[in-house]
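Q: What would this chain look like folded?
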Amino acid sequence: MSKLQEEITSRKTFAIISHPDAGKTTLTEKLLYFGGAIREAGSVKGKKNTKHATSDWMEIEKQRGISVTSSVLEFHYKDHHINILDTPGHEDFSEDTYRTLTAADSATMLIDAAKGVEAQTEKLFKVCSMRGIPIFTFINKLDREVRDPFELMEEMEEILGIRSYPMNWPIGMGQNFYGIYDRHSKKVELFNSENPSDVEVKQTSGPEDPILDELVDPSFLAQFREEIELLDVAGDPYDEDKIFQGELTPVFFGSAISNFGVQNFLEHFLYFAPSPVGRESDQGVVEPVQDLFSGFIFKIQANMNPKHRDRIAFMRITSGKYTQGMNVNHVRLNKTMRLAQPTQFLAQDRSIVQEAYAGDIIGLFDPGTFRIGDTLAEKGTFQFAEMPHFSPEHFAAISVKDAMKHKSFEKGLQQLTEEGAIQLFHTYNRYPEQQIIGVVGELQFEVLEHRLKHEYKADIRMEHLPFSIARWISGDTEELEQFKKKQRNLAVDRDEKLVALFDNEFQMNMAKEKYPNLVFHENSFIG
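A: My prediction, written as structure tokens:
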């Protein structure tokens, strides 16, 4: 195996998806802890706690105890180079999560053992499923009162349509949680409620091993043995091909906050999870193991270091090797540019990258050159598939309170628009012109207001508007001119493309009937 193949094969790049409060950021912290990236896993409990999750770097995240933007976290574990994409669980930030999933080769789905499959998990699972990537499931909070494991697996099949294979199985749960049994290695990891980090591991000959009689209450042991027998007889068989194709999910039980079962999950995951895979472009599949470097921008983040007012474009390397100072072709601009000082991340901590390989995520200093979806290539003019794009559902007119702050206000709007955090529109053929913000979720308005105030020193006025639908318009030239003259509530986006704003579907359907030769697009990719 060549050095290039060896490096790329060692990469594991995955996203963690879940509903809010399932424990996703906590699981991320524990994985970093095992990789030696942090000395002590942070807690996301309570706003007054001075210790915050490593992956939550933005001030508003620390205040609210939630993740509102995707974080990129990179560390080593044994012979593996791991890139975790920690995504926002809150549905109001699902667009950021969807885009981030395009940079992942697999996903870890976190499920709260008391609540089961929740709405946001279902949405994010569907995106992973469409991409056909392997999905690994961690059922969390086993040391609390939870639902029956068989019931949880049945719910996964009914709601998500995916079969499951438990890699380990709980012995008891809640106050009577004794530990987990690894079905492959036949090891038992015993849970110590007094000191959860003190994990005792016992090798057994199987579920019937007499050693278990000394460790587990007879009634819970009998139930465990019955469940394992039922799994062996009636459960889905172990099938690596189906796991790699995303048709069967390996299931792990544990408790992230107690740091129990996480290392067991990590070691199995690294064995099963795919190394970097090929990416579709408009000129065919680009395979990771090739000499020529390529990558795409999936995220832009302004003010990661507020003191420096910097802006970082996150790039997933799709093929070959990056070396410091190399020249690449910016395909959209048809321009050669030098990649001078890319960085890698542990949340807000960063280091200069000398070299990086397919599968890695690196940050590029962005003076305003990049857009989400841009392709960079050492040679060639191919472009990777466009990013998922949501039509906004909430709208507000926006203006700055202090005219002296107009310049910084405009800069903030421009940068946050380029991040993909908001969509910015200007009213069409209306005086005075009005700026309108469109977002997927209402909580984004709060984040926008907070960031403009704290990062750009601009206090704003926001007037919520009744619209709930935006449609980009194209079609017959003559009919389009009539539409522009007669249709109310028109705007243009940052590329001067025409957008119609509607209060509801009834209004939109009326317009469609009146102008049958126009096309009403859900996003701006209208050719």
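DSSP finds 14 helices and 31 strands in the chain.
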